[in-house]
Q: What sequence folds into this?
């Protein structure tokens, strides 16, 4: 929905949340999909000047590369 209506900020946040869910699930394909979502979220967050989302996407992307979710990034840990 966010993509269709051009809500890039909302879409970036949604992609980050979905990527976190995939990372938590932990399958090899999940890590690949998570990394792709995080790269998309990072692109939008940087373009929109969303500093917190940019930092979070970068941190999670490094976790996606390592195949792990940091405890402070786990879904529901806000």
A:
């Amino acid at each position: 929905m966010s993509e269709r209506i051009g809500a890039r900020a909302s879409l970036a946040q949604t992609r980050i949340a979905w990527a976190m869910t995939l990372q938590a699930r932990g399958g090899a394909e999940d890590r690949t999909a998570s990394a792709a979502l995080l790269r998309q979220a990072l692109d939008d967050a940087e373009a929109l000047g969303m500093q917190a989302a940019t930092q979070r996407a970068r941190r999670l992307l490094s976790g996606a590369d390592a195949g792990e979710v940091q405890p402070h990034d786990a879904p529901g840990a806000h």
Summary: Confidence is low (pLDDT under 50) at residues 74-78. The first helix runs from residue 2 to 5.
